[in-house]
Design a protein that fits this description.
Helix content is about 65%, strand content about 5%. By secondary structure, it is mainly α. The strands form two sheets. The protein has a two-stranded antiparallel sheet with strand order 1-2. Strands 3-4 form a two-stranded antiparallel sheet. The longest helix is centred in the N-terminal third of the chain and has 28 residues. It has 16 helices and four strands. A hairpin with a 6-residue loop joins strand 1 and strand 2. Helix 1 runs antiparallel to helix 2.
Length: about 375
Amino acid sequence: MSLVDIKCPNCGASIQLDNSRESGFCSYCGSKVQIQEAINKIKIDRSCDINNYLHLAKTASEANNGQETYDYANKVLELDSTNAEAWELKMVGIALMPGFNYYEIITAGNKAIEFDSSLELRKRIYMSFLSICSLYFQNACMMLLEDLQTLKVLYDSHCTLDPDNATNNMLNEDSTKDYLINEISQMLTLRFAVPDEEIGQDEDFAEITVEIAKGWIECEQAVNSRYNTYGTYLSDEALNYWKRELEKIKKGLPTKYLTNDINPNRFSTRIENNAPKKQKVVANNEGGCYIATAVYGSYDAPEVMVLRQFRDNSLNKTFLGKCFIKAYYYLSPPVAKKLKNAKRINKLVRFILDKWVKHLQQAFINELYV
């Protein structure tokens, strides 16, 4: 005997009946229940729920709401774990969420293919894998390059204090670099989740694989630019790793796609004599206070002299202070230029500086400027 959970069609109560029999009786209202008919009714009810959840998941995905797409797809899978459409939507939901897990994307996509072997779905899944990989490389490349000017200022500050260890200190402190290099390498798993023979047989797959290869090369160039900012370059061992992975990316590509754009010679070339040299950068304490001079109208204004004294006697004696000085001299000239012709902003900046100058006079150099 095997009991099955069903609902009484008369009173709606949840009951258990022996599914080896044709009929039974509700223990609540006594009505006769056709067991197979009641089971089919449950399936119909679940089908309605599944369709509703699928609709909600699709709507959420169209709105780029990854979390809701993921949640509704999971609700479908709780009712029907073999629903290929739900697995595909789950994959989309994961990809739309920040900090997505590439392994979960591959798992969900492969599950969809497992339960629906159609060529159309397989192509959608594989195209998603490749597209996500390509887009991530583009974003990672931009992130690696976007803050190079700021890093150069910090590197120069390190050179001022400890020129012999400036490069190593910057490399050790650059957590963004380490994170992105790791993520870039992990994202390749999405490319490798697509069989090489599929790459060779489908032009769409081949074209986006070329974009992945280009992105991989550009990411290496961006990483090396970051190293160059710190007065060094990628090691031969690291460069060989990038080259090996490029060959794996290109595997399966027809010959016509193997152009110079994805040739290993596009990787950064290390020329020993042209490598950036670590140089000791001396802080320019004789430089002017650009913004203050623009606001007060003269390099020799008393307020400017107070600020220069603060720079020389306080800021220049600490590491963070020296970093601030370097950043100030890098960023302030264009700001000072604009302040000359912006009377309202000039007035506001002067009001702020007046407060600060007064504080400095009282705290540090009162005897000189009172």
